[in-house]
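Q: Convert this sequence to structure tokens.
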Amino acid sequence: MMISIDKALEFELGEVTRQAYEMNIPVMIIIEGAPASGKSRLANALYMSLDAKYTDFVAARPPQESDLRYPFLHRYWYHLPKNGNINIHFRSWYSQYIEYKDFDIKRNINTDFKQIEKDMKNFEETLKNNGYEILKFYINTDKKVRDRHLQKLKDNPVLKWKAEEFQSRLQHYDYDTEMKHFLDLNTELPWTCIDFHNKEDAAANLYSKIIEQLKKRINSAPEQTTDQDGMFTDHFKTKMFTFDLKKEKIKKKEYKEILPKLQSRMREIQFQLYQKKIPLVLVYEGMDAAGKGGNIKRTRALLDPTGYKNNATGPPSNIELNHHYLWRFAKRIPKSGHIGFFDRSWYGRVLVERVEGFAKTREWQQAYGEINDYEKSLHNSGAIIIKFFLSLDKDEQLERFKERENTPEKQWKITDEDWRNRENWALYLEASEDMINKTNTSYAPWKIIPANDKRFARITALKTIIEICEERLAEANKRV
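A:
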């Protein structure tokens, strides 16, 4: 039987969610509860009450083979609601964590489960700090009531399979005990427990809490600020990019001898990574015309194209702008055993968005920690992350710009934006130095490569990738 919903509450819920939609507030409603607790009936009643135009129901099944090929939080990043929309998460990253832990699933985990728990906390905090409203509900029913629900399912020939599925899951893990740990944590995003012994009361409590929290958010919404200060230093002088770029060179003959050997070894590395199911994330940042695209091209020259993806990052689309800035990159993270190249990346938040004023001061300042947390979660899910910054001097950049303008087949590479960025050279230099200082970690290191000589830069990058991957593969072989 359907749950009878108080019409006044349903109307008020509709009003408040429409206000949230008009204010572009993304909402995530998490509904957890033990099997046969009644959560599906409550979740469906809620889903039926919300406007279908901006509501999505995300049902998290137990992890399948395809899920085990991606980072732990991948499917939740993938399903983030856009601004103004609502996601109902029926079972969430909490259920997934419990299943991974109790079934001892380590297929895409390179750490202990405490670290994965911390990744979940960071994920929620990152979303909250970027305007997401997260409401967490635990549907509570005592064991006797759940047993009665299960018996009803067993007695129904059409639904008997569902009871068997529930019981199979209950035999393998203790959901209640694991969830109690999370319910007892003192966090900024606490759980609301909903007692399902009376389904109408349960629905009223659920609706009332959502209305209360969304009203609080709507009424406390801060005024839109225009604070977009990049906070740059007058007459900035770099302490990082002081090496003599003209000294780092490699002769053409030596380059032609070394490059094919490194490319062949890179192909072998690709197959070894695939065998060990280790994902490789390669990020390329640097000054305009520093040779990022050419560097990537030489690295992937002999690779099997079925095992890598080259992501050339342009300005975000309207859809991407309506999501968290990491969303468009999280969707492209390679699955286990594959390689993802990123020609420019999520670091746009602290580079071009900071310099050009596309991000508010608070947004780009908090992004350093958010990016570190995100990269740590990729590392914890088994990924190798290597970040290259290709550095060239201003005179060399000018020569390359002029060459592009004067070479018909290269003219497409030079734009008015490139010349405008050049005028902000000092700002980009300071932003780049801050970025590297604040996001250079043991699990996702930056490698600064002098790029005045393209051949030197290509060889250096290839050698770096091979060396780091060989170390990781040796560790993997020891564990066998």
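The first helix runs from residue 7 to 22.
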